[in-house]
Here is the input.
Amino acid sequence: MQIDNHVNNVLKQHFGFTSFKKGQQEIIDKILNRNDVLGIMPTGAGKSLCYQVPALVFEGTTIVISPLISLMKDQVDALAQVGARAAFINSSLSREELQSISLRARTGDYKLIYIAPERLELESFRVILETMETALVAVDEAHCISQWGHDFRPSYRKIAAMLAKLPERPPVAAFTATATPQVKNDIINMLNLREPHVLVTGFDRENLYYEVEKPEDKFDYLKNFLNRNSKSSGIIYCSTRKTVDTVSAKLKRIGYPCTSYHAGLSEKERQANQEAFIYDQSPIIVATVAFGMGIDKSNIRYVLHYNMPKTMENYYQEAGRAGRDGEAAQCILLYSPSDIITNKFLIEKGGFYARSDDYRKLQKMINYCHTSGCWRRYILNYFGETYIPEECGYCGNCLNTVNHTDITVEAQKILSCIKRTGERFGSGLVADVLRGAKTKRIKELGFDQLSTFGLLPGHSKSSINEIISHLAARDMIDIKGGQYPVLSLNQSACDWLKSGEKITIKKLIKKDPYIKMEKTEEKKAKSRQKADLELSEERQLLFEKLRLLRKEIAVEQNVPPFVVFSDATLRDICHKLPTSETALLNVSGIGKYKLERYGERFLAVLREHLQKNPGFYPVETE
Ligand code: ADP
Ligand code: MG
Here is the structure.
């Protein structure tokens, strides 16, 4: 009871929240009971809060081990904004800073100290640890301990030894978004967790909107997209440096403020461009995948892939950088068949041993682009999520669906033709046989004598290919074998052939993406049972004013704007239209400390806006 009160106080006073996100309360309760925990939660789930709240409740200091020095400053700045004493100790500090921080650390002046794992090996840090009262050790991005994870970091393996040396072993809380069993076991074993409470929340990111577009002209599509989203912050990923340079130059030429990032730029340029993006000076960044590690920017409203990535793993990680703050965000992939060629080239260039696996993964990525089913379902299915909805109802495919075309007969003929030609050929040849093309090769192979020859006379090659891709996306056909992929039938194709069931393809009519986003909001609101209304035009205007004020403050404070207030907080202000300090405290993300710092200035903008726009009422909540 008392603990609960204390926790709720910390949550509201410091962070400005009155409720927890999924899983947070459970984790925090366990930590406060001094249990070890392992939280496996997706990006944006709010993992930091799971250790920051206990850190503020506990006596003593919490050590946070985090892989990226570049993120520590933002995290410590964000904590300072909410009245929590925190520091980082890393190689970016001057000798004087290091000395003064070490001294304060030893006297228990900080509630949280962020370090990179390498620091544990330094004698100077061990001295600090011996004198300090360590309340909790939080291991962020804990998958770095595992070779199976994507960012293996050997120094993470020193953590257990450090824990053993502490005068009294504090509870350990580990967090990651990577959910494979191997990684999970590695974390538990190598950190030496004691009967940890393991919490796995769902993998789904419900605020993300998925879409694959196949535009004739990608740049044209991009231009139209940016026209609608010009003020929001977003990443445009390209597969090569050259494309990054071309796209960003073209965007600049037509007046879009954008910056760029790839390994060919100097360290200094990369640093400057990354900052321009994080600090909202440049809303758009055009980048290769070299960009993104260690980006905690929460207000990224879209991630647009200009090229298809090589695996679903890459895609989900990159697209997942959108919408960390839980507000609606778009993940759009621009696909063209030439992306397949680029990726195959990259695979061929890479090592020999991984190839068959690489091709298999690439094929799954291609299938994603071709599926006419629910994209969210495809993703969740791919990553082995246990609860999978039939249709999410708000990804591009779900929203675009208009009618169904029966392709049962075509599918039967295609499958049969693959079988008859011995499951040794690619889609081009299979399509030719079905269309009845008397090519030299077909005659040589004797396929013009097959019963499946010419069974689909009126069909174009590309329409047959489309059905083949669709059957592959349904896992009925396997497409394997590197540069010249070969089609074969899966068990599910044989089962289906016997079952007599129908197969339909959805005929898509593309709608205006804007309408789709609104519908997304509608569906989301329904699914969350809360009034998450689109901002009306006047409110959008207010939002812009608040955003400008946020940026002004961010410049004064030398912190990224999202550290001052998240997009979610600004939107909540637009909904609630608070006109007093008490009312401002009801806004999500505004606690005592931020109220004191910024309350007056935000109220001033609000009052002025309301005066100029009378007849403007707060949205009823609850
Ligand atoms: P993760 O590390 O899991 O990717 P973060 O800790 O960076 O996620 O948090 C993501 C976003 O969620 C942040 O903008 C944070 O302010 C917000 N957030 C965290 N907890 C809550 C909560 N209880 N209510 C509302 N927003 C929250
Ligand atoms: Mg995190």
